[in-house]
Automatic annotation (TrEMBL):
Species in which this protein is naturally found: Leisingera caerulea (Phaeobacter caeruleus)
PANTHER family: ALPHA-D-GLUCOSE 1-PHOSPHATE PHOSPHATASE, FLAVIN MONONUCLEOTIDE HYDROLASE 1, CHLOROPLATIC
Family matches, as InterPro entries: HAD-like_sf, HAD-SF_hydro_IA, HAD_sf, PGP-like_dom2
Residues forming coiled coils: none
NCBIfam families in UniProt: HAD-SF-IA-v3 (TIGR01509)
This protein's name: HAD family phosphatase
SUPFAM superfamilies assigned: HAD-like
TM stretches of this protein: none
Length: 206
């Protein structure tokens, strides 16, 4: 099936997202595991992705767990250290697609404030033809509504979209809607998928 547009997740596809690695470096793996077991940091972050205010959400959780208050507040105060670098080859693939006039869209679970922080550090994230951020839409992957919004607003038929994401549940939700999908593990297999789909030549995907 031909592809009319490519849809990218952002975290762990275009930029690194490594909160566990950050906490390991600050408090060691054993205490990090204890922290993440006792405090619902990822649940809180998902609420931020739904549009809840960033600082207020983190600091409210810190108040609920005073024994971990300082470490919890790092989620806000040191957030950029959890996205320490871009993934350059995936960014080059995105730009190679755009150079061939193939639309590229972002579909990402991201907070409103954290997305602005990320764009300030990685300006290439502002380069999508259309950007669909969960906090702006008040729905998150893998909920069907966020996929439906992209379909409706872009006008691209589901079976003409190629979507890459690092989380299987997000891929499965897109599969269920008829999207073409690729589970992202590293840039090289995704580059090969773009070549296989006839979107890029091997030289363009190198």
């Amino acid at each position: 099936m031909p592809v009319d547009a490519v849809v990218f997740d952002i975290g762990r596809v275009l930029i690194e997202w490594e909160p566990e690695r950050f906490y390991d470096s600050r408090i060691g793996p054993a205490r990090r595991k204890q922290l993440f077991a006792e405090v619902p940091l990822h649940d809180m972050n998902l609420n931020v992705d739904r549009g809840h205010p960033f600082r207020e959400s983190v600091y409210a959780l810190a108040k609920q767990h005073p024994e971990w208050a300082e470490e919890i507040r790092w989620w806000h105060d040191c957030w950029l250290q959890m996205v320490p670098r871009a993934i350059p080859r995936t960014l080059r693939l995105m730009q190679a697609l755009q150079a061939k006039k193939i639309p590229v869209f972002a579909l990402s679970n991201f907070g409103a404030e954290t997305f602005e922080l990320a764009c300030g550090t990685y300006p290439a994230l502002r380069g999508f033809d259309r950007t669909f951020v969960s906090a702006h839409l008040k729905t998150v992957k893998p909920e069907p509504e966020i996929y439906a919004i992209l379909e409706r607003e872009t006008g691209v038929a589901p079976d003409r979209l190629l979507f890459t994401d690092d989380r299987l549940e997000n891929i499965e939700a897109a599969d269920a809607r008829g999207w073409q999908t690729h589970l992202f593990t590293s840039p090289a297999p995704f580059a090969a998928r773009l070549v296989q789909a006839g979107l890029l030549t091997e030289q363009e995907a190198a």
